[in-house]
Amino acid sequence: MKTKKHSLLTTALAMCLLGALPVSSFAKLSSKQKSLRLITSMVVSVSTTKEAREAGLKEEDIRKDITTRLEQTGVKTIPEYMYGPPRLQIRIKAYKIPHQEMFVDNIDVLLKQEVTLARNPEEKITAVTWELSWLSNSSPQRFVKHIKSNIKILIDAFIADYLAANPPAKRAADANDIAAVLPAVTGKQTKPTVKPTTAEYKYVASKNSKVFHKPDCRWVKRILVKNLVGYNGREEAIEAGKRPCKLCKP
Ligand SMILES: [Zn+2]
Fold it and tell me: Rounded to 5 degrees, what are φ and ψ at 15?
């Protein structure tokens, strides 16, 4: 017991030291962790079985808990999207065992994003680059609590990997790097104040449209993430030549 405690302490200390060395520590990350690098926003979707819903599990509650955690970490979450950004998918498959007072559940947490094939970089596909699953069981009385606490642990693991790949101190610098590189890549950036990949903005627009929106407007779902531009104020959006959307009235 004593040696175990000691080795845990050593591991913790080693991890602290690694955290202090961003450049060399990055090389030590797994490819699963590295795949989370520079992701600044994601869609969160939660699905479960009819039996789980009937037992009181609410997908929307779980989604809200997760988006809150992610936003606290600095990851912007987008309610629904047709196409574009990474998607964090939480699949809760839970079934009641007949003639037994027991639920069996399997929770999958998957991060899907667009990747290119190494053998043919022109080929873009959506792939799972990060995943974690947990198979367990519980009594019907504890079911909802049990699922929520397991999801919390899985999401903690996801956030830990996210932070390992995106150390907070480095993230601000990286965001600036992207803002500096983007005009050259897209060729058509209007203002340097527009930061399409940073986490927080009050209003958004497509770079191909004259209209700006609140981030939760349903028109926003139709904007491809590569075309998204953000503004921190109405004035900023209007100055950039955009007018307010008639639906969300930003
Ligand atoms: Zn709108």
Answer: -65, -35
